[in-house]
Fold:
Amino acid sequence: MEKLKFERPVISKINAGVPDKFGMRTFINPVTQIDGIPVKDIIDQYGSPVYVISEKTLRSVYQEALHAFTTRYPKVQFAWSYKTNYLNAVCRIYHQEGSWAEVVSGFEYNKAIDNGVPGNKIIFNGPDKSAGDLKKAIENGSLIHIDHFDELYDCIQVAKDAGKKAKIAIRVNMDTGIYPQWDRFGCNYENGEAWDAINKIMPDESLELTGLHTHIGTYIMTPAAYAVATSKLAQLAVRIEKKYSHHIRYIDLGGGFASKNTLKGAYLPGTDTCPSFDDYAEAITGALNNSDIEYGHMPALFLETGRALIDDAGYLLGTVLANKRLANGRRSLIIDIGVNLLFTSFWYEHNIAPAQYHQNDYEDTTIYGPLCMNIDVIRAAIMFPSLNKGDHVVISRIGAYNMTQWLQFITYRPRVVLINMKGEVEVIREQETNETMNMLDVVPKHLKRS
Ligand SMILES: *Cc1c(COP(=O)(O)O)cnc(C)c1O
Structure:
């Protein structure tokens, strides 16, 4: 029999009358391993903090999402949203799974090409495409999603100069019952701007209207909003059929599905409240199947899901630097993971757990990062057990946006490792060093030491 662990006695003030509807008890299960690899071993070998991506989770969540849509609609194509996580290894896993690339800048476009994505499987979104970007995209036969009229005119010019036909779609923004409306991207549906754009595009010899696109927002908790968006795009498609006898090839519903993270201020945890892929798929494919689009010309359904696909596959492992009592007696903990590495901590109450056995002395705690900046708060208030300096913690569900929106600030950015399908740990991005940091700095001559 295993010897019972000693728990030191504690005296704590009773906060009478504050149990919530879920009762008094708080318990955080320690996260001691990821895909069978002990957290301690990963930190010992690759340092702390360190990001971990589970290839197994990444692939299985993708398959789950794909299954939800392909069982309801015959032509479905996912395109990986590069800005959500553009580590090359991550992108290549999605491409291996059959995903195309969805990019929003010339930089991301080049990345997709370097990752081996054929030009005609790259969707080019966003409000900032230079004439050079457009030229490259037209020559490669990529799908250009027009954001505004100035871009449309640029695109016409570039296509004419290149003597090639540009494959374009327009991004449409609309009222789906989600507020504030994301009306800064694309052409508006209700005020006729989108229809106006279509009527400028259709007669132009240098353009081929291949699709209709929308991205209604992010972390959308209401599948019904997608049904509205799908119906509105379908109505545009029907109008195009009627007026021009032209059939668009695809309808692209963008991204925006909620991951299971908990938003700040949410009453219930995200695991209890976020819709499933089936819920979203049912709303979208239902609206598409029930639309008036001609049966023989049903468009392909494109999806650019980002956060809901990858959040669960990402972890951030760290170490306790210190325990500290604040002036008012409140317990605080300083860990080596700061907001520079966890940008999403500004929106989410991230799951954070000890990585080893801990005792049951939970207390309301503030968890700070290591930065010498007052904003560096990982959790403002969490019932947390006491940990010792040197103990490890695991923040889970952080795969989306943190490895692209991270800031090089005060310290180096750490390694990212992948736990592959065989359960082996592989580095997929190295830690920054003094050398990488100085690489782009240029010291003027008069400041050089002679
Ligand atoms: C960011 C973005 C996505 C991915 O959004 P998620 O909310 O992460 O699913 C998809 N399409 C476009 C155009 C985007 O800008």
Notes: The CA atoms of residues 19 and 25 lie 9 Å apart. The chain has two domains: 33-52+312-433, 55-309.
